Amino acid sequence: MNLIENVSRRGFLQGVVASGVFVLSARFVPEPLWAAEGEAAAPAIEPSLWMSIASDGTVTIVAHRSEMGCGSRTALPLVVADELDADWSKVKIDQAIGDPRYGEQDTDGSHSVRSYFDQMRLVGAAGRAMLISAAAAQWSVSTKDCATEPHFVVHRASGRKLGYGDLAAAAAKLPVPKKEDLQLKPKSEWRYIGKESNALFDLPDMVTGKAIFGMDATMPGMVYASIEHPPVLGQKIKSYDDKAALKVPGVQKTVAIDTVTPPHLFKPLGGVAVIGDNTWATFKGRKALKIEWDNNSPHSSYNSDAFRKTLEATSRQPGKVVRNVGDVDAAFAKGGKIIEAEYYTPHLAHVSMEPPVAVAEYRDGKVLAWAPTQNPQAVQETIAGVLGIKKEDVTCHVTLLGGGFGRKSKPDQVAEAAVLSKQLGKPVKVVWTREDDIHFDYFHSVAAMYMKAAVGADGKPTAWLQRTVYPPIGSTFNADAKYADDEMGLGWNNLPFDIPNHRAENGPADYHVRIGWFRSVANIYHAFAIHSFADELAHAANKDSVQYLLGLVGPQRIVELDLKGDEAEDAKRYPLDTARWRRVIEMVAEKSGWGKRSMGKGRGMGIAAHRSFLTYVATVVEVEVDNKGQVHIPNVWTALDAGTVVSPDNIRNQFEGAAVFGTSLALFGEITATNGVINQSNFHNYQLARMNRAPRHVDVQIVESDAPPAGVGEPGLPPFAPALYNAVFAATGKRVRELPLSKTKLV
Amino acid sequence: MIRFKVNGKEQTFDGDPDMPLLWYLRDVAGLTGTKFGCGMSLCGACTVHQNGAAIRSCSTAMKEVSGTDITTIEGITPMHPVQKAWMEIRVPQCGYCQTGQIMQAIALLKENKHPNDQDIDTAMSGNLCRCGTYQRIRAAIHQAAKELA
Hints:
By secondary structure, chain A is an alpha+beta fold. Chain A has 18 helices and 28 strands. In chain A, helix 3 packs across helix 4 and helix 13 crosses helix 14. Chain B is an alpha+beta fold. A five-stranded mixed beta sheet of chain B has the order 2-1-5-3-4, with helices on one face. In chain B, a hairpin with a 2-residue loop joins strand 1 and strand 2. The longest helix of chain B has 15 residues. The N and C termini of chain B lie far apart (42 Å). The model of chain B has no long low-confidence stretch (mean pLDDT 98). The chains are: A alpha+beta, B alpha+beta. The interface between A and B is large, with 67 and 60 residues.
């Protein structure tokens, strides 16, 4: 791995121009292309931030988002290449370091393409305009008479051509066009955006073992570290004995790390690090450590069974109102048919296949780190905070991520490597075991939901009350946070149902483990409660589930929501459109043969439709429950409307994967604690769907759309569990109201 | 001193005989295509071939490697039809588990030239993919089987 030195913009560009390269380089001169939202407008376009063209024609495009399997490292450069009219086979991708001058880099929230699609088009268009200008000048013709074909500027009248590499040096000396003067390609001329031919840039390396993940990063002279963390959050070391550990061949020494204090942020958890010559020695050394922990942690009484009762009791009491339409209390007081239900979902662990890992070196007051992180700027901020240095003095390089799912937005293990490196005076690679990963995750929250509806004579609800209670992600950043204020937009304050009286509430809850973002976040439990309950109402009304759902969504309209901040901004560009919601339901019903296929004994189909990360998704799951009560999933159909899409085949892959991820959490996923210690440890007791339990076939339909791009990494997941559970009800007549299904005997 | 072959080359090892092959490959030999996922033979990310059969290198101690031929993903050259099928079907998302999946699939097709879905499920269910690419893995194995036939 090469270590990158900072080169001043001026010196660098001079060198480059002298050597005849149109460059640019991004990572050396990161400045905002255009000012990020809310900042003062930048005066000029700087395509140089994002790409370079070498004299041999190689186009290097910078990916400033992390690649964890969702495809953003390929998708955004494809957009640049399309507008640049580059030949994709001559494109290389350079992964950006963490630097706030790139704008926001946290690859989460399914928003890489949504937030950067327009900017990347302008980057490519600016480069293309400069190449055309350079060619026109060389030919002494008007730029209007020139066009491009991949990697060439063409003079239409004479047929003359000049390659991008040949034009690079001249183009580099031209002024960057103004944003308003740029011409974007019409959709009909897109070569890459929306095309089936797009494949991941790293695909060849991934199938040959050449791809470099965080687990594969090394630094010269580094040592390895494995850390015995406090079993209960906040526990401190009373004493420890490392004599036996130090006798393990390859173990060099041990280092104690202070126990974390709230707020936990992304700070090291604390514990005892075993330092060694290789990973295995540190693992083996850890097993020989004898540590006595104190018993003073406020979390040592955390027991999942008792906590569930607390959450459920809270969910039966009025909470903070987060959305109110009409008057549910008045409607409930009128009497009529009242239906109530309670739902429960446990903690989950991310378990990306690559456990947390990082390598870092502290030297002369600065830190250099390589990590599989979703958020390299958080690495800078965290290490700066922990070591008391400036964040500008932390350089974070981003490797490929062996899965992320939100876990790798929290770089606590990178901070551990930096802390240890400072103590040891050499680069340190910290490797978490799978057991560490499961015990010490930033867990997906445990949640309890209470639902109540009054139903009219036509079977439709006249009033709908929903209440949700869970320790919020905010508790990781503010130990006093008890309400999930930042998670209400995740499928709770934006229900599109056509119900005259509707109230959504949130009750308080304490945290006892670190809580964090997990793929689809609160949408998982919110969607589980809402779409299970909708199906319960359909059956109570003796109506077909699809027709009932369409009735709930109601007529075509834009749903007005009282939103604030980013959500209000999003709603301007992405209004909540029930026509799009209805379309995915109708599409998936049609494709699945809903109501037209005869289901044998023990078979059934269920539906759920949910919008998250601004993408509309409807999913039908077909189940077969065998005579032992085991659930098989022969078919899943999903229809989605994500607006404009870049790589449709990758999107199908994301949604196929969401069905498997959904199967894992719906059938098996459960993390529990006893006296503050997590009970699960590896894949034998925290099971994932294997090929033989995964859906046999997943069909994904993408709505053709010109709407702005929305998310694709997460939205496939929320409707899956309720659709599966609704199918189980159709197959067995059993209404199960808690995840995972393995806790309930079906026969 | 343990003597064995890795990707056709003679190797020796005189470190901790309990060290799993996985960590020898990754930390000592620098062959990082073989991945760490669980350390308990539960996920298959560390799958390599020992005398042509798929094994979990995380649970195979160096002393058990003595006198055997080990093949890692780096030793699969030129590109195998399984790898080509993986590319054509575009199996990977994050890619981390895929080298283990590919090593398992190559071993399967060596034993069974025409596996049906059930055979593939049986052979591949020890290999976890958190991204959930199983449908494509199955399709790619069928395609590679056709190519090899």
